Amino acid sequence: MRVLIAPQEFKGSLAADEAAAAIASGIRRVHREWTLDNLPLSDGGPGLLDAMRRAIKADTMATVVHDALGRRVLGRYLRVRESGEIIIEAAQANGLMHVRPEERDALHADSFGVGELIADAAREEPGRMVIGVGGSATTDGGAGAARAMGARFLDGAGRDLSPGGGALVQLERIAWERPAWAAGIDFVVACDVTNPLSGQNGAARVYGPQKGASEAEVAQLEEALFRYAMVIRRQLGVDLSAMPGAGAAGGLAGGLVAFLGARMASGFDLVAESTGLAGRLAQADLVITGEGRFDDQSAQGKVTGRVIEMARQAGKPAVVFAGQAERGSGALTLTGLEPDPAAAMERAADLLSELAARWAGEFA
Prior knowledge:
By secondary structure, the protein is an alpha/beta fold. The chain contains 13 helices and 13 strands. Strand 1, helix 1 and strand 2 form a beta-alpha-beta unit. The radius of gyration is 21 Å and the shape is globular.
């Protein structure tokens, strides 16, 4: 039996490579004779650098940037040796991974550090820069990233707005000149969600609660992003209001389109091509994938849904491991072993290994 183990991160508990290792260790307890092919994946969010580093020859670069709450952290990115292309994982700066649950501040969290990463990486003079978004703690439409690259966001009195998405309700004017270093760089936003910037399926309503936003704060962020889009359309000539994917990472994707002329591409397709996913899947007898929560959003371009789709097309059975899952999904869950979600996250590696061992035993 040859098994392809291709999960994404279990958000808040395990990186994709840690999840793959835990699943493999559980299977090996039962079936040492099986051949296991570990392939941690990402759709452009957390884990992108790890997935790409395993697939291509690249140098890891680093610089000190600011996280979503303004604290200094070490942000890493990759420089591909052969092409000089830069690969950035925005969550290295504005990711939820840097913010404890009790610290989440949806109104004031800021993407400034992403702009710092981009500016630092541009010194390498790449022809192309891929910016993976996702896993963010911010809902500021990428305004913070633009501010780090020289933009100013002003109210009606000409005063600079404070950081964070909440302040954008007062936005009247943007002072912006594209930096000289951005000339000649093909900016690509890697993401796999189609949410617009605002509206019923927009960044604030869909993802704001995950970032700590109350119902009232979601309403404020919605109003702020609507105004932000209006000012951007008026001054920069870019209409983000209904652009598919503009709401990714709290609107960071849309902001990169507006300020840097970035184009959007599938993060999953980028990683799948670089890692040879299709060929490795073709050689497997069975595919295992998984994520922290398996629900109806998983089928909307996320890693787990795309892997299941590819397995189905190739005629390969697929098994899903998850921290939690919607009833009737068919996924095997950690909460099936440990009903307390907090405890399940705390013991995620051990529980995932045990879950895999039990599945492998029943498979036999």
